[in-house]
Amino acid sequence: MPKSAESRGVEAVLNALILATRDQERGHLGPDTLQAFANMWGVQMKAGDQKGGFTWLNFRLEPFESPTATYWGATLAALAVARAPDGYAADPAVAPQIDALRAYLRTGTGGSLYSRALILWADSQLGGILAAYERNSIISELVACQQADGGWNLPSLSTWQRTDGSSLPQESDGYATAIVAVVLREGGGPTSAVALKRAQAWLAAHQDKDGSVTAKSINKDRKPETDAYLFMTDEATGMAALAMRR
User: Fold this and answer.
1) Cα–Cα distance between 223 and 201 in angstroms, integer?
2) Smallest Cα–Cα separation from 186: which of 239, 234, 236?
3) CA–CA separation, 130 vs 107, rounded Å?
4) Of all helices (H) and strands (E), which one includes residue 58?
5) Residue of 144, 143, 207, 203 whose CA lies nearest to 177
6) Residue 139 near residue 184 (C-beta atoms within 8 A)
7) Which residues neighbour 168 within 8 Å (Cβ) at sequence distance 6 or greater?
8) Do residues 184 and 120 touch, judged by C-beta distance below 8 A?
9) 107: which residues sit within 8 A by CB, 6+ positions away?
10) Average pLDDT over the chain, rounded to whole?
């Protein structure tokens, strides 16, 4: 699929999420947000394996620009819908689109623990995606692979393989820990409260003087002098902020 089409899916979902988050604070839906949602639904897939989801940039770079990153995009779309004020998620006019989004997210429940964790996050906000036993199973799996130091490592979340042949680090990683902490905070409930506190303590202990939380690339052993070296650290830091906010 042409990259221009893939990028339209990314842009439409992100625009809706950003504007819905703004409107959540304001307490009402703005006309620009309604237009952003209309644009998002306009590029929602109507057929095929991705029916109900959205095209997403695929440069075979994990975890955000890869074949399975469509679940990341669908999760962000679910968060946008859930955050929109004025009862948007219950609007009959967009019920078919929201139901299709839920159905697409359900197709990922047989995937990696990483994808299922994202779907748990979406379900915790939008609802109607997972059954109770599925939620409990994902939470139990996440808690079970927490490391002794309170963090998570990348290999525990998926069978990712680096393109340069190097091995993924076995030690706890900033992004793996931060994203799981966010998911447990939003969807884990009392059963994962202890695991969440340990994760938050790990993030606090591994925060650098500049405020960042270091994370490693999933795709290759990147060197500090390269432009892409800080990409995952930036993402980990943002997720850590979500995981540790009051």
Assistant:
1) 28
2) 239
3) 11
4) none
5) 203
6) yes
7) 153, 154, 155, 160, 162, 216, 218
8) no
9) 49
10) 96
In tens, the pLDDT along 105-149 reads: 999 999 999 999 999 999 999 999 999 999 999 999 999 999 999
Residue 210's identity, in one-letter code, is: D
Cα 165 to Cα 102: distance, rounded to the nearest angstrom: 36
Using CA atoms, how far apart are residues 2 and 102, in angstroms rounded to an integer?
A: 26
Q: What is the rounded (10 degree) CA torsion for 196, 201, 207, 212? A: 20
**Nearest of 219, 218, 192, 215 to residue 203 by alpha carbon:** 215
Side-chain half-sphere exposure of 179, counting CA atoms within 13 A: 28
**Token code pair at residue 84:** 């929109």
Amino acid at 7: S
- Kindly list the distances between the CA atom of residue 10 and the CA atoms of 20, 41, 58, 78, in Å, as whole numbers in the listed order: 15, 12, 11, 13
Residue 48 tokens read as 């095929």
Let me know: does 101 contact 74? Beta carbons within 8 Å. yes
Instruction: Give yes or no for a cis peptide into 63 (omega within 30° of 0).
Output: yes
Burial of 243 (0-12, 13-18, 19+ CB in 10 A): buried
Largest Cα–Cα distance in the chain? Answer: 52
- Whether the pLDDT of residue 2 is over 80: the answer is no
Are the CB atoms for 185 and 196 separated by under 8 Å? yes
* CA 217/CA 227 separation, integer angstroms: 12
